[in-house]
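Researcher: Let's continue the batch. This sequence belongs to Polysaccharide biosynthesis protein, and it's 662 residues. Same format as the previous ones, please.
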Amino acid sequence: MQISLQPLLRLPRCVKRRVLVAVDALIVMASVHLAAALHLESLAAFLDLQLGSTSLIVALISLVLFLWLGLYRVVIRYMNHTTVLRAALAVMASAGVLLLVTKFKSPPLVMPIIITYALLVLLGIGGVRFLLRELYLQHQRRKCRPVIIYGAGAAGCELAVALRHGIEFEPVAFVDDWRGLDGALVEGLRVYQPVALAALIAEHKAAMVLLAVPSAPRCRRREILQRLSALSVPVKTIPGSADVIAGRASLSEVRDVALEDLLGREPVPPFRELLDAEVRGKTVMVTGAGGSIGSELCRQILEQQPARLLLLDKCEFALYAIEQELLRHPAMRAGVELKPLLASVQHREALATIFATFEVDTVYHAAAYKHVPLVEHNLVEGLRNNVFGTLELAQAAMKGGVATFVMISTDKAVRPTNVMGASKRLAELICQAFARAGSQTRFCMVRFGNVLGSSGSVVPRFRQQIEQGGPVEVTHPDITRYFMTIPEAAQLVIQAGAMGSGGEVFVLDMGEPVRIRDLALNMIRLSGFSVRDASNPAGDIEIVYTGLRPGEKLYEELLIGGTATRTCHDRILTSSERYWEWPMLDAFLRRLETALANTDHTLVRQLLQAAPLDYRPTEELADLIWQARQARVATPAVRHVQAGLASGVTLAAMLGPVAKGG
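Model: Same format as before. Here are the structure tokens for Polysaccharide biosynthesis protein:
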């Protein structure tokens, strides 16, 4: 039979305090009598009226001292070693009171009785508080879900303490790789080796495993996560040491597994001189400032303390969101001017005004349409924004005296099979042509693959599909992609922008490509679900293959020529690639602009294939307007009308019989 603590827990705090005061008074009085009885080895001390008056006086004075020392301000459920020290100090004061009071009594109590009294009081008031704390925690544990903590170090201990004070999880065991801890007790919990993890989960019916190794290198965390993914138990982590040290998080926070841990990619410390070179004390502009890469560039740039940071974006909400975030950034205390500018990179007059007004030193051009299927469906607008937006921005930058122009490119620009990749390769050609033409502005391009968590990334989509119970949609079982975290990509872009003399294509070392199917499998299993397939028809979540989307490749590349040159940074390579001189490129762009103005999709594709882009589309045009036009042409009624118009028959004449019949 379990006793409910709810009535006691619901009492007001002032009532609980009064109850504790009464209990402490009884403990003090009883301790005086018990100490004397133990010393005299006689129960007669309990009936001694003179000793009773002494105990009452000591109790009253002791309670005043306890109150003054703050013993009743301590919240019992959060007791720790400082509470024990405070209680010991209070007991010493109470023993001193007893010693002083008995000086005026006859006969006075001897010192052994005083010492015994102090020990009894400490045991009594401490024991009552720890008993109440344990009863409270036991009551809470009945509502908590059992969890296993992987990592019995300082972070794991802190996490266990924090969880016990919460109402959601109850740690039941530690798991740690170090054999020296096997079988040891840490925070009252036994430490096991990883081989026992599956049995522990089954024994305790653990709701999840919490990974508490924030200081471990990512390659080590990846090994642990791969081991845990085979158990199909939910896995969460605590923040990394860098976030904790920077004050962005605390060790007690529990988070979803970071996908960068699955990649096992170790970040490389940045070169401070490269980060500062084109930013510190200068006027810097970021286009597409509200996007995934653009917003992270703004955060990184702000930390290098530019004189002025211009945020350029044509999306009002995205611009407002990044401005509000940056205004709260600690780096703003250094007096950086923040200017949110609502404009499109295609608007020549707006760009000219901005460059003339703010005297920009460095431009990071991240504004682009980058969603492959959407650009395939909207070919004309995608090329206008990505190609001619870059052209307008580059020309305005040169006229405005910009010193450095850094264009953010993509691995999809290498031998593109889609319009988005072709448009980014064309944008690279524009920057290369201006650089080779002897422009005073130093142009360079930085090319990299997918970034984790960006808008349109598979990671958020997979998470959403898993939360909804599946299925998880993968385009092809063999499709692979390069991945990098957004902060690392932005940091490397800034450093690459400070290298070279102009015209270089910098390629970020993305590590090994990741198979998207494996990424989906790990995300499903680490969320605590099993994969439903032919070998496991009773699984939780199925992976379905939807087929490659328009313009999508099975794998991406970073180099056109296949060779790259090392730079002073381990993660940044440079590649010299073929280009067109500006006169030839200018003539081509004029023809392309005319084709876009006429919405001539067929000619646009022919021009893209004729340019030095290695553009090799694998399907027919996917543009929605082109497809709608083709459908109209294919409709028999439309063909009949067109034939009638061509032969001189009026539309009214053709529709007349139909109207009469109606």
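Researcher: Any comment?
Model: Residues 145-263 form a domain with the Rossmann fold fold (CATH 3.40.50.720).
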